[in-house]
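--- STAGE predict ---
source: upstream dedup step, 1 unique chain passed
mode: sequence only
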Amino acid sequence: MVNAKEITEFLNEELKIYDIEDSSCNGLQVENTDEIKKIGFAVDACLESFEKAAQAGCQMLIVHHGMIWDGIKYIKGDTYNKVKFLIENNLALYASHLPLDRHETYGNNGVLAKLLGLNNIKPFGYHNGKTLGFIGETDTTLDKIKQIIKENGMQNSSLDFGKQEIKKVAIVSGGGSKESYQAIAAGADLYLTGESAHYQHHLAKENKINIIFGGHYETEVFGVKALMPLLKKKFNVETEFIDVPTLI
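--- STAGE serialize ---
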């Protein structure tokens, strides 16, 4: 028998949630009173994720983008509706934002680096003095990497201004447009992130680098999915990924 607080204590330590400054209130954002028999995993703490988790029989939902950022100022509108739903359905909510981006084993960027078959993987992409992503070496082509990205459900929007031969790849999932500058400085042939920004077109063209935008949502399903077998084995619970993709 396990409860949300026990799972939280384990995740807080495993994901090192206090090691990086974050606007997300990482950890257990809403508690419940039930034994946890099934855990849902989702990218976003949205009402649709909550509803699908409850329908699936989950007593706890673990997300990447939590519901509480810099604390709750008012409990009204959509915040009220979400808090009300969680309490009425006795559904606990746990969030891990930047810690789940940067974790070498269970983080979005660590999983992506392994997915692309990178070698000599090192931390990359500084934010508030700590790294979020990873950079590694390979010996492949841009087309082959695009194929891997497509096969794993990511978007393939790209700026193909670099070489076809890819030797070094930098990765920061989600909204990592600003780290493009760091990828260029590190000598990457390819930078993989989630979202695009207008200035990146000329930045990539003038610096002869390839940038692939895999989608904010699509590049950040990997962290929560990586936690599923870990918690299933550790606590003998059922797990289910709650897929609620976004249009942007």
